[in-house]
Specification:
single chain; about 200 residues; Rossmann fold; two-stranded antiparallel ribbon
Length: about 200
């Protein structure tokens, strides 16, 4: 698996981010299986609000971001949940990407919430990935009550930590999956024919 490259894209800009810590754990688990890993921290990127009239090359670090995303065999998206969805920095980053970066690429999802499970944030990220014809890993990681999950920078709940690390393992295991083209129809959903 040494030729597998797993990229985690962190949608949190907070310095003390549970999302970033969780993604680091995810990447560590991927590295344990022999993958090359990379954390893309959006704090290090100048990404203006997406404007369809502006070329990506003229939009700060958008081209640099897209280039790094294209090199990934598997991508893990991580975001805090804000107002029932994922963060605006992650949305901006995804808006600068497209089919070239995501089509037929394995994608894992991780979301963090200060309260209840961030189910809607995961659903919204999944919808975007499906629209880009990505192959989304069925296993996903949800971190709730984020203010109390870390002790000395480590996850206190071993079950939660296992779920986060499993996401990294699945990213490696499914990085080279060959998606069935018939299952990716971003422009329409014909439903279950003959049922």
């Amino acid at each position: 698996m040494a030729d597998v490259h797993v990229v985690a894209l962190c949608g949190s800009l907070r310095g003390d981010s549970v999302t970033r810590t969780a993604l680091e754990q995810t990447l560590e688990a991927a590295a344990d299986l022999g993958a090359n890993t990379e954390l893309i921290d959006l704090r290090d990127y100048d990404l203006p609000v997406f404007d369809a009239d502006r070329d990506r090359e003229d939009a700060g670090d958008a081209e640099r971001l897209a280039d790094r995303m294209r090199r990934a065999d598997a991508i893990v998206l991580g975001s805090p949940m804000y107002h029932g969805s994922y963060s605006s920095p992650l949305k901006t980053a995804l808006d600068y990407c497209g089919f070239d970066e995501f089509e037929d690429t394995t994608v894992g999802l991780l979301a963090v919430s200060g309260g209840a499970f961030p189910v809607t944030a995961l659903e919204h990220m999944r919808s975007v990935c499906r629209a880009l014809n990505a192959w989304v890993i069925p296993h996903e990681a949800a971190v709730s009550n984020s203010n109390s999950v870390l002790e000395d920078g480590e996850f206190a709940d071993s079950t939660l930590e296992k779920r986060i690390r499993t996401l990294g393992q699945r990213a490696v295991q499914y990085a080279t999956i060959e998606p069935d083209p018939d299952s990716f129809e971003s422009d329409q959903n014909v439903g279950a024919t003959g049922k």
